C-alpha cells in the first residue's frame, strides 16, 4: 500500500493543574508499508507498537506537551530508536512528565518533515498550549491538529499555558485559510474538515472559553 494515515485509539489519564480526567486519544501513524511517523504517542506504547509492526519509525512527533499526548513517547522511542520532536515552548510541560529525558529535536514554524514522500509542514498554532503545532500535508489534504481544532470547535483553554484569544487567532490565521476540503485529524474524537468547521467561528467567539 502507498502513503496513508492510520489511527490508533489509546485510553488513559490526562492530568493538569491538579485535575485528572480519563480520556481517549488519537495516535496517528503517517507513512507507508516501510516507514512511519508516530504523532502524539499516548498512554500505551505496546498498542502503538502493534500497529507499527515491522515498519521503521523515523520520528515521534508531539503536537504539544500535555501528558496525554507524550506519556508513551519515551518508552516508544526506547524500543524503536526514533527521535522525539516537540516545539520548544512546550518543553516545560514535557519536563513535568519526563524530567530526565529532553526531546531530541525542537520543532519550528514552517519546518517541513518528510516521510514516505509525504511533506508535512509544521504550523505553530499556540493557544491550547504555547507550543502547540499542527502538521499540514497540503498535497494529500491532511491536517493533524492535535488539540488546536476539533470537530465542533477549538481546543480547551482556561488552564495553565493556554489562552482563548490566542487559539482563535491561530485557527483563523493558520487553519481556516486552508483548502476547505482538508481533512482534520484531531487529537481526540472524530475527524472533520476545514470546511465543516469554518462557518462556526462566530459561535465559538460567542461561546468563549
Structure characteristics:
single chain; 209 residues; alpha/beta; six-stranded mixed beta sheet; globular; Hydrolase; Metallo-B-lactamas; RibonucZ/Hydroxyglut_hydro; hydrolase activity; hydrolase
Class by alpha and beta content: alpha/beta
Number of helices: 7
Report, as a whole number of angstroms, the end-to-end distance: 42 Å
Tell me the β content.
35-45%
Helix content: 10-25%
Chain-averaged pLDDT: 97
SSE order, one letter for each helix or strand: EEEHEHHEHEEEEEEEHEEHH
Unreliable spans: none
Strands, total number: 14
Shape: globular
**Major sheet characteristics:** 6 strands, mixed
Radius of gyration: 16 Å
- How are strands sequenced across the largest beta sheet? 1-2-3-4-5-6
GO molecular function: hydrolase activity
Organism: Saccharopolyspora thermophila
Protein name: Hydrolase
Pfam families: Lactamase_B
Amino acid at each position: 500500500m502507498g502513503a496513508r494515515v492510520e489511527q490508533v485509539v489509546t485510553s488513559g489519564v490526562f492530568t493538569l493543574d491538579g485535575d485528572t480526567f480519563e480520556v481517549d486519544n488519537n495516535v496517528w501513524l503517517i507513512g507507508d508499508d516501510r516507514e512511519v511517523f508516530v504523532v502524539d504517542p499516548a498512554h500505551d506504547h505496546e498498542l502503538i507498537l502493534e500497529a507499527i509492526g515491522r515498519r521503521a519509525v523515523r520520528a515521534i512527533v508531539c503536537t504539544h506537551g500535555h501528558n496525554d499526548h507524550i506519556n508513551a513517547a519515551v518508552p516508544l522511542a526506547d524500543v524503536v530508536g526514533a527521535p522525539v520532536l516537540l516545539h520548544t515552548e512546550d518543553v516545560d510541560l514535557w519536563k513535568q512528565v519526563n524530567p530526565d529525558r529532553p526531546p531530541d529535536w525542537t520543532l519550528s514554524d514552517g519546518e517541513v518533515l518528510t516521510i514516505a514522500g509525504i511533506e508535512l509542514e509544521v504550523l505553530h498554532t499556540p493557544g491550547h498550549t504555547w507550543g502547540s503545532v499542527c502538521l499540514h500535508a497540503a498535497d494529500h489534504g491532511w491536517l493533524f491538529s492535535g488539540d488546536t481544532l476539533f470537530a465542533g470547535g477549538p481546543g480547551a483553554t482556561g488552564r495553565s499555558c493556554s489562552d482563548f484569544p490566542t487559539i482563535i487567532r491561530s485557527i483563523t490565521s493558520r487553519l481556516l485559510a486552508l483548502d476547505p476540503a482538508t481533512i482534520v485529524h484531531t487529537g481526540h474524537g472524530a475527524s472533520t474538515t476545514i470546511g465543516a468547521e469554518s462557518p462556526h467561528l462566530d459561535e465559538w467567539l460567542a461561546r468563549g472559553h
